[in-house]
Sequence to fold (542 residues):
Amino acid sequence: MSSKSIYLHHNRVSHALDFGVLLNMTSLCLIESNEAELVSNPSEKVELGREGKGVFIYGARDNLVWNNQFSQNDIGIYMAMGGEGNRVFENRFIDNQSQVKYVGDALLEWSYGGRGNYWSSYQSWSGDGLQVGKDVYRPNDNLDRLFWLYPEANFLMGSPIVMLLKWAQREFDIVEDTGIIDSFPLSTPSASSGFIDESDMTLVESDSLSFGGIFMGNSAVSVNEVSHHFGDFSALKQVSFSVEQGQTMALLGHNGAGKSTLIKIILGLITPESGEVSLMGVGQCLLSRESRVRMGYLPENVSFYDKLTGEEILTYFAALKGVTKAKVATLIEDFGLGYAKDRQLKTYSKGMKQRLGFAQAILSEPDILMLDEPTVGLDPQASQFLYGKIAELKRIGCAVIVCTHELSLIESHIDMAMIMAKGERLALGDLNQLRLQSGLKVALKCDGLAQVVKQESSLLSLYQDDALYFDVELQEQVVRCLTSQYGKFDFSLSKPGLTQIYRHFIGHDMDSHIGSEQATRITPKESILTRLSSQFLKMRNA
Fold:
């Protein structure tokens, strides 16, 4: 419960009653290469929510469920209430009575990087040899949600009218505004990549199995009390943070906040006046003698040799980094630059140059990747492609630091963020921690809330404008009260996003900064116009 950074792998759960694995209010967890089978409640009349679940994810966020198998359970995977940012892909859902149960107000995409999940109940194959289906797959739709919310209607589940509705949804591609969607369902079960070996797995025969508190990863970048000056200007003031292997941190702040100086210090281009920097557990001052850290860097403005071709540029950097030409050829194809590899760089568009720069940054499969405004000027598809590549690097342990102003775009791709202003750290943590630090409230709305508040005095102080507003740490308590005591399951949760949090910490500072700049630009122009007008009037009246 309320655990963070769990790494759960190589486990098998069989013949449990309620659930195989429970993730309750967890975040930043990796659930990989596990099997849950025959999790089933044998009671003739199973109480709502007591069905056997392979994995039960409750109020969890930013977890990765990858390369698992869920078979012959009442429900393969059950996700309920308040979850966000979870990624579920390359899993195998085989012969579960219900493949997925999801209750929420959002449409969740369960594929990633063009790879979805294998569903034994999916039949729409392309027939052209591709590994993905020609149609999207919706294992959980509004009809499922309806039966979940109104269990008294369960007797209609197999009726002709419901079968007709499901057929109509499938045949006429009726778009659902809630539920699960898999845009790239797999035609064959994804390979286990050698992770699952029966001799290495733990066989568990129990009523339930839960895991928590396992620490994942080691420190890749550690900055401790770093300060630096340029003459009388203080660029950094005792800045500290740590990024673990496999984590992505957003480095946020207005121009002049100290981000570029910090990046140069981590890259070893500047030696800080005070403080310590460690990379992969080794002090920066010892790296040249005792250790070698593979680092990648993509600056905001990519600058290569205009008269070289794309392939020549990557080959040049590959030679510097000791990377083979075969790796260069693979990256060129992966980044969709094969058609332009023999063209000079001066003919490349902004997006093409950015992709080439990103390929250069990851040539050596870096331990640490530094990105400065990687998606500026890119279209949404190109931006998602870059973040897909970042996710692949994270899976093999790469630590990523991204400096960006595109907060809404990066929010779903980060594990933590650090907000800076005037060389100081203002806030640091994952989204939930930043919400707590900011004091911004979660908003919950549902039908009949006013009547509930009249009966439940503990909610009265949280009630305002037909909604409940509370700190994120109270979410579990409030949700449990509404669901268990008043049967309220159909509600919406609105949490402060990264943009709101950012504005809370430095918005006023930015406004005043921009305002002063505008004043210095506009005031002289206005005074000149005033003087010219005055001279013109004098000349006309003369």
Q: What stands out?
A: The chain has three domains: 7-210, 219-434, 441-494. Confidence is low (pLDDT under 50) at residues 193-217, 511-533. The longest strand covers residues 219-230. Residues 441-494 form one domain.
